[in-house]
């Protein structure tokens, strides 16, 4: 899941970026309205956290432009004042939710997760299942054969990507950009190391083995259909 934060206050922006990264998201931070507007229009984000008060292009103009262009990326507004007019204006322009500053990070994280779930309830379940492996997306938990599997945020994100794209060979470059937000450099083995750790938790003690290496191409998760 890739998020964009548009926030001109360096401390707040960095705090949000760090927190959301630790929660397992890939995060871009735009420090001006113009940058935020450009990135939101051109890059595929799953959600935008948008400060209303920006020195150049305000948050309202950005959400208006997004909706005008037919983009339905969920938008969480950050407003400085708890003013009814501000909230109504934001929601009328097409924002999905708002949070009044100052807020606690856990509340922002809860709102972000709710919006991401709402965005996919129509087409995707809150649980993903392959064979006896179950991912609970709401609680960020993995269970295999009734055994809870403890994963780090990055491991969960990697497993979620593999499960969502079950049966597809995922090149290392795609995994790198979706889970680590980095350009894949063939000198690093970060993906292979992460896959090895994930396998130790998800596959070593179980049958069938779900994570497969496709030599020269990448990784794939799949299970026989009769499972
Ligand atoms: Ca601001």
Written overview of the protein:
The protein has 227 residues and is of the alpha/beta class. It is built from 8 helices and 12 strands. The strands form 3 sheets. A 5-stranded parallel β-sheet has the order 2-1-3-4-5, with helices on both faces. A 4-stranded antiparallel β-sheet has the order 6-7-8-9, covered by helices on one side. Helix 6 packs across helix 7. The longest helix has 16 residues, at 105-120. The model has no long low-confidence stretch (mean pLDDT 89). It binds calcium ion. Calcium ion binds at residues 8-9, 51, 53-54.
Q: How would you summarize this macromolecular structure in one to three sentences?
A:
This protein is of the alpha/beta class.
Topology, please?
Blueprint (H helix, E strand, L loop, with lengths): L1 E5 L3 H13 L3 E5 L2 H10 L4 E5 L7 H10 L6 E5 L4 H10 L3 E4 L4 H16 L6 E4 L2 E4 L4 E4 L2 E3 L3 H12 L5 E2 H9 L9 H13 L8 E4 L3 E4 L6
Parallel strand pairs: 1-2, 1-3, 3-4, 4-5
Antiparallel strand pairs: 6-7, 7-8, 8-9, 10-12, 11-12
Bound molecules: calcium ion (CA).
Bound molecules: calcium ion
- In terms of structural class, how would the helical and strand content be classed? alpha/beta
Oligomer: single chain
Number of helices: 8
Order of helices and strands: EHEHEHEHEHEEEEHEHHEE
Instruction: Please state how the strands of the largest beta sheet are arranged side by side.
Output: 2-1-3-4-5
Mean pLDDT: 89
What is the rounded Rg? 19 Å
Helical content band: 40-55%
* Quantity of strands, as a count: 12
């Amino acid at each position: 899941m890739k998020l964009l934060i548009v926030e001109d206050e360096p401390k707040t922006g960095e705090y949000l970026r760090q927190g959301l990264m630790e929660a397992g998201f890939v995060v871009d931070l735009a420090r001006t309205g113009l940058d935020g507007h450009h990135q939101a229009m051109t890059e595929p984000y799953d959600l935008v956290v948008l400060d209303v008060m920006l020195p150049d292009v305000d948050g309202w103009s950005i959400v208006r432009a997004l909706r005008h262009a037919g983009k339905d990326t969920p938008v969480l507004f950050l407003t400085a004042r708890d003013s009814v007019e501000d909230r109504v204006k934001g929601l009328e322009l097409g924002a999905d939710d708002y949070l009044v500053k100052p807020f606690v990070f856990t509340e922002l994280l809860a709102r972000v997760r709710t919006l991401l779930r709402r965005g996919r309830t129509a087409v995707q379940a809150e649980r993903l299942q392959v064979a006896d492996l179950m991912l609970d997306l709401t609680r960020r938990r993995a269970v295999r054969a009734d055994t809870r599997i403890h994963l780090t945020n990055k491991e969960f994100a990697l497993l979620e990507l593999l499960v969502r794209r079950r049966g597809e060979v995922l090149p290392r470059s795609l995994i790198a950009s979706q889970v680590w937000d980095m350009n894949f450099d063939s000198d690093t083995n970060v993906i292979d190391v992460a896959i090895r750790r994930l396998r130790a938790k998800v596959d070593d003690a179980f049958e069938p083995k779900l994570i497969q290496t496709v030599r020269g191409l990448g990784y794939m998760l799949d299970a026989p259909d009769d499972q």
